[in-house]
Amino acid sequence: MSFEPFLNPAAIAVYGASERETSPAAHILRNLLTQGFGGEIIAINPKYETVAGHPCVASQVAGGRRADLAVLAIPPQAVPAALRDCGAVGTRAAIVITAGFNDGDGPAGRERLLRVAREAGIRLIGPNCLGLLRPRLRMNATFQPAMPAPGGLALLSQSGAICSGLADMADGQGLGFSFMVSLGNSYDFGLSDALEMACTDPETTVIAMYVEGVRDGARFRAALSEACRRKPVIVLKAGRHAESAEAAATHTGALVGSDRVFSTVLREAGAVQVATLGGLLDAGRLLTAAPRLPGGRLAIVTNGGGAGVLAADRLSDRRLHPAPLPQDLRERLDGVLSRNWSRRNPIDIVGDATAAQYRATIDACLDSEGFDAVLTLLSPQSMTAPDLVADAVLAAHHRAEKPVLSCFLGGASVASARARLRRQRVPDFDLPENAVQAFAAALQASTASPGAPETPRIAAPRGPDEASGLARTLAELGPLPAGLLSDTGSRRLLASAGIPCPVPQPAATAQEAVRRFVETRGPVVLKIASPDISHKSEVEGVRLNLRTGDAVEAAFREIVAAAQARRPDARIEGVTVEPMLAPAHPRELLVGVNRDPVFGHVLTFGAGGTLVELLDDVATALLPLTPGRATELIARTKIARLLGDYRNMPAVDARALAELLVAVSDLCTALPQIAEMDINPLIASPEGLFAVDARIRLEAEVTPLLTGERDDLG
């Protein structure tokens, strides 16, 4: 769609125009009339002929007018008629400020609202939103009074309060906006649309998002990936914990899903996630000044050692480090600084440094090939004039291609210098750690956005007819009901997908368990068999390395008795018997899959075993997986370092492990009924990979293909 009616309207109609101070429409009309919007303003209210001295008409049709954009701040039951009026004259964009809609099809129902909008050919933002700001046009189609300066930052927000607050504080923060949009309940126009609008807007150089929830995960991923390939995207995700997630779901009506999964979506697209509103502002301030950082070598210039040390610490926290001082730069600074300067980065030019020494140091760092950006720190000293140092920073900012950051610590004594820096859009920060955090975020955006990996195509479920081994296994198992599969059924499915997996044999009695042991011809493992017990070790339901029939018989009785004592409600079907695997140099891993309500199947990989929750060493990826993404997923875990040569342990076959993860991904694509999968542990050793325990839960019944349908499967 064209976003021109939203971003560049020549005429705006305000439905509900009034002079009542409690009326949102009155404030919207006043903002448009008094803040310099140069287009036509159409006041609409059948009760008035004029409002605030401005002509008012009953409708666009009655007044013979046509707006590009309509803003509706009227009772919910009156909105459908207003949309029909818009459609009759050709208005194709609307912002519904009004709240109070319900899910039904009545006069104030969501379904009626959407049906009328579609019939009229109208895209609508809202309802229950603040509105839209376009500073370059002096267009304030909101009911808050602030008009921020124009700039390159677009704010896409699911909270009107966030828009209102940032609009009011923008000037003091040195921020300028291309546009701000409050999305409200997003009945029609949602985050994906807003991303596309910002992506195609030539005035927008950086996109900032405040997100509480997403409705269409696949579309959001596609829109975000495209945006990140073209512009830096910064995201603040609210509702990261259980209590706040519940509030977010209530607020927006969108699905929240897992915070870890959402972070995975952002990382795979190339977006930068920040944890706080301050972090969003700081990263936006730097990226609008320098949308693409040339590199991560930051020179820290300071007149106080402590401030420089804090900045260096924060760099190291973000896995960056102060760049070393080139020899030619050290010699150049020796000629302009006192003999007590630090001669290393952070460059401490000591407390009595003059503005001239600041200027010489900043210029020398910018001229050096050893640095990509300069951070200037100043703490108030009687010998240092903040305003003169600000002059030096401003001069460098205007002449240099490299980014120049500043942080003037203090209050009243640096206030005027800080205000001057921010007015001229120098990326200035309140604290050293804030400056470094913004630098790290901007660097991440600069390195991730241009080469952001294309989100894999969201493959349509293939079904088992394209996987012959799986089809045969399903035919042998028969119809599988929804719910938790047996241990044997789970592992047979894994084996059919080419995942190395010893298939256990069921034993309902101790005598049958002994017979299975004899058939195995080697040491065995016994595990409790119960559809109600997922974590067998928690009920003492596992016995390892059983080497005699007597040991097997005794273990059977112990396992069953322990399970009955600990879980008297559980259905006990006996045990399973499987070969005891004892490969040399084993590592215990976890491979899991679950279905996120927003983004679909998600694979988790990491350290496994009984301490998996305690260690919490996992990384996640959305499916489907490619071999390259599987390799990257493994590398993001701490246990990845144990998979290579480590002390006396030979390396695991890394390629085989990545291929196993892809095989799990392919199984979930072929069998989309899988709701959960848990392979724990997956034993990885130089001898191979072995899934020694597995659990699969189906969300719907799986019916095998008929024999005749499988003739071509080979």
From TrEMBL:
Pfam families per UniProt: ATP-grasp_5, CoA_binding_2, Ligase_CoA_2, Succ_CoA_lig
GO molecular function: acetate-CoA ligase (ADP-forming) activity; ATP binding; transferase activity
Region of interest: Disordered: 446-467
Keywords: ATP-binding, Ligase, Nucleotide-binding, Transferase, Tricarboxylic acid cycle
CoA-binding domain ranges (all copies): 6-101
Annotated InterPro entries: Acyl-CoA_Synth/Transferase, ATP_grasp_subdomain_1, CoA-bd, Ligase_CoA_dom, NAD(P)-bd_dom_sf, Succ_CoA_lig_flav_dom, Succinyl-CoA_synth-like
Family from the record: In the N-terminal section; belongs to the acetate CoA ligase alpha subunit family.
Name this polypeptide is given: Acetyltransferase
Taxonomic lineage from the root: Bacteria, Pseudomonadati, Pseudomonadota, Alphaproteobacteria, Rhodobacterales
